[in-house]
Amino acid sequence: MRITIIGDGKLGSTLTEHLSSEGHDVTVIDHQSSVLNHSVNMHDVIGIQGNGASYDVQIEAGVPKSDLVIAATSSDELNILCCITGKKLGAKNTIARVRNPEYAKQLQMMRDELGLSMVVNPEREAAREIARNLRFPSAINIDLFARGRVELVEFRITKDSPIANKTLSQIGSLYKEKFLVCAVNRENEVYIPTGNFVLHEGDRVHVTASAADISSLFTSLGIVQQKVRKVMILGGGRISLYLTRQLTEMGIDVTILEKDAERCQILCEYLPKATIIYGDGTDRELLNEESIGEMDAFVALTGLDEQNIIVSMYAVSCGVQKVLTKIDHILFPEIFSNAGIESVISPIRTAANQIIRFVRAMQNSLSSSNIETLHKLVGNRVEALEFLVKQKAEYVDVPLRKLEIRDNTLIACILRNGMTIIPGGNDVIKLNDRVIVAAKNGNIQDLRDILK
Prior knowledge:
The protein is an alpha/beta fold.
């Protein structure tokens, strides 16, 4: 497909990398030659310097023949204008990044009235992800499928875990809850495990199960579930605002540390139920004064990855049980867990996943299945995808044991008429099923792609 990306910042460059690697014809527009040169040199893309909302620049970039225009500049208004211009010039689909909380209630209207195919708000989605993790603090990360009916939960195998040093086939018969281990991260090596795979202490495992079974499963595994009642947030940006609204509605006490006095005033107006502290949240004395060690959870949300990491490490050292850290830039995720930081949030990754899912669904609109949900796991090395089976295909009504599924690929769950099926060899995929797949080798466009 021909895709035009306007804005080569963090989100734009992430999309450029992913979409060009999947074989799309990508053109990038940005007003800075230095960032454009980097993208052109690193990836097989075309770079156009200029104002992405300009008629002439879009003509030069080939927007009239584009299948998709993605506007990801730092300005919401410019992104909307870019999409309107692109749509008028003939682009088939447009996506705008819109982040301002003041526009949150207008997003559906923007889509309908302005002809946008999608409006992406990375900060709001990140806030939802954080709130979801705080509801289940024993997990490292939680991803949702089938509108929340199935959860993919990541947790670490401890020394005294009842499933340590057992094969997956042994584990399956030990518990009444139906679940499937679909990915394992061991010392930075990633595995899509088979039945004879043995779990070890320190493994980070990704498990799929119904939302109803996850809580019960954690209890069976002896994993303590401590309810979060008090949360401290470092930084008072957009994510903090979205997140605090959700947490206070859940009855959670929230303290925000923000060093900009004007921003504190804005937060006080928008968040009357939260405690807003004016001060530098990287100051150890301030953190101690605000009783960081008594918090159930700490969330680092400043615009600086390094700052978020350092203060998160201090929160861990103070005994905070649940620490979530926003990281968008740093490229060495293996250092986080060594520093005690396990739950990492990336708004850029979240937004990119939404857009990549849309692109794959566009590309295969006439195929036998639609991508409904996409999550990237273990530093983007594993994809977990939800497909809706909408047409008869060669894999429908065939026992799974008879399907030749490619290596490092696993059917993790099947949803049928409200029922969650953790599949075995005799189960089959039927028309209108939702099928969740975990795959180490990405770029799965259609459910057929899991077959050899």
